[in-house]
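Hey, resending since the last one bounced:
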Amino acid sequence: MHWYLDVLKNYAVFQGRASRQQYWMFILFNLIITIATVFLDSMVGANGILVLLYPLAVLIPSIAVAIRRLHDTDRSGWWLLIALVPLIGSIWLVVLFVFRGTEGSNQYGEDPHA
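The structure tokens again:
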């Protein structure tokens, strides 16, 4: 849970690096919370309001952690735009997120594992 909270604490920090574990744990907690909001929304009968509000609330932190994850692989945050290429772009972006980060310092900062 602390990985999720660390990302939220660095709400709009686009500099630095994020480890694979921090990124994927944030994604996992996002998925769990999204499923919970869908369930809660259907129970309360909020007509999709909760399902809409949660993704909007975590949009900027999600972009920030994705950019920091790309920085860990020594790539610019602009690589995030490759997701705009239909199908292949999203697949390639997931592959980049799975790659191991560069060991030691790189141009974006210190190794998050150090």
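The chain has one domain: 2-98.

Sorry for the duplicate.
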